[in-house]
Please model this.
Amino acid sequence: KQWYQRRVRGFLQLNNNLLNGTIPYSFGNLKTLETLYLFDNYLEGSIPLSMQDCTSLQYVYLSNNELNGTIPSIFSNMTHLQGLDLSSNPFEGTIPNLDQ
Model:
């Protein structure tokens, strides 16, 4: 299995690792993940909509990458979300309403 297909609980910190490519769609399988740090890498593409299945997420830090497209509204459905940093990415369009 790939590392991201294994059961990950709580905290996944992969910032500052020179990671490139896209965020795998299978990240949505990490349902018990509470904190996701992928900032300061070279990730590109859009934020996968499958992340809406990560219902335990409290902190999502994806800043300083090359993520693009629009910011998905999936974050407004994350009832435990306390921190979200998408800064320094070339997103387009409007910022979705994130009120819970």
